[in-house]
Amino acid sequence: MVDLKEVLSVIAKSIVEHPDEVAVDEDENGAAVTLTLHVAESDMGMVIGRHGKIAHAIRSVMKAVANSDGKRVNVDIK
Length: 78
Prior knowledge:
- The protein is of the alpha+beta class.
- The protein has a single domain (about 5-75), classed as GMP Synthetase, Chain A, domain 3, CATH 3.30.300.20.
- Helix content is about 40%, strand content about 25%.
- The protein is built from 3 helices and 3 strands, in the order H-E-E-H-H-E.
- It has helices spanning about 5-15, 45-50, 55-70; strands at about 25-30, 30-40, 70-75.
- A 3-stranded mixed beta sheet has the order 1-2-3, with helices on one face.
- Strand 1 and strand 2 (about 30-40) form a beta hairpin.
- The longest helix has 16 residues, at about 55-70.
- The radius of gyration is 12 Å and the shape is globular.
- It starts with a helix and ends with a strand.
């Protein structure tokens, strides 16, 4: 079983300037998991990317990882 919270945390910490301010909240409801990613205000642009391309890529990777466990994941960025 893959720890989705840890995977998202590692991805986010690798692209931000302030990795110590990365936090992930997890809300599991059966097979559906909602992950909320919190980053420093100055790192929001790095996590979202131009036209949301980085955010879309993060969500795609997380959906692939969750699918391998038979779960559905939703990633919110705050």
